[in-house]
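Q: Hi! Curious about what Helix-turn-helix domain-containing protein looks like structurally. Here's the sequence.
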Amino acid sequence: MNFPERLRYLRKSANISQQTLGDAMNVTKVSISGYETGNRKPDTDTLQKLADYFDVSIDYLLGRSETKEARASYQTAEKEITIEEALLLSQLQKYPSMYNHLITDPEKTVLQLYRLWSFLEEEKQNKNL
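A: Let's find out. The predicted structure is below.
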């Protein structure tokens, strides 16, 4: 997916109009339309604003990556997380329902996932007997 397609996809997924996005970016609806048709290219500041607005990386926005890689989502005030932890978060975000449960009630959700995993491991062991 290239930049015009990705921008249109993100805008439509967010269920917002070209006018609404243009207002948020401080550009006209015609500019947003031009970006989505490939007839115009945003300047670097607008490109960064678009990535921030949709909470994606510029590489994702440009179609250079298929992973959204939300920008600052992987840093905390206490510590930076490892690449492995960031990749895990990125994979979990592909499943919004589970991800939202993990965010809202991590202790309960992790326990439920552990119980499911334990059950599956036990079933696997029973089949090998």
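A: A fun detail: The chain has two domains: 3-62, 76-127.
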